[in-house]
Structure formats: C-alpha cells, structure tokens
C-alpha cells in the first residue's frame, strides 16, 4: 500500500510499485528460507534473533534506492 501511495505522490516512478512488491516479496522469502534452513541445519531454534532481524531488513535497502524517482 505504501508503494502505491509513494507512486501517487511522485516519490517513485509510476508503475514501479508492482516491481517493489514482487522484488520485496521474493527477496524477503528467499532470506527467510535461507535463515530457517541454516538455523535448522545447525540445530538452533527456528526464530529470528536480534542479530538476524537487521539482516532481513537490509534486503529492502537496494530496492528502495533503485525505486527512487529518476534513479536507475
């Protein structure tokens, strides 16, 4: 919803909101699966610790930088 609002306000290029949704979803799910598989393989609890949460948040930084209006 926020990406649609940003596109309407002119903060990101029109039409790029769908890219933001799909790239964000694919990147987030890939990181979640890799984290869960890695933790399960070494016998750790399957929850995101304080050290893992920022790593999962960083996956969105390149997406936000790319989607800025005028930036390619």
Report on this model:
The mean pLDDT is 78. The chain has one domain. With 72 residues, the protein is mostly helical. The radius of gyration is 15 Å and the shape is elongated. It contains four helices and no strands. The chain has helices at 2-9, 17-41, 52-58, 61-66.
Helix and strand layout, with pairings?
Layout (H helix, E strand, L loop, with lengths): L1 H8 L7 H25 L10 H7 L2 H6 L6
Helix pairs in contact: 1-2
Low-confidence stretches: none
User: H/E series, N to C?
Assistant: HHHH
Shape: elongated
Instruction: Indicate the mean pLDDT.
Output: 78
Percent in strands? under 5%
Distance between the amino and carboxyl termini: 22 Å
Largest sheet: none
Summed up, the helix count is 4
Count of individual beta strands: 0
Structural class: mainly alpha
State Rg: 15 Å
Binned, the helix content reads 55-70%
**Domain tally:** 1
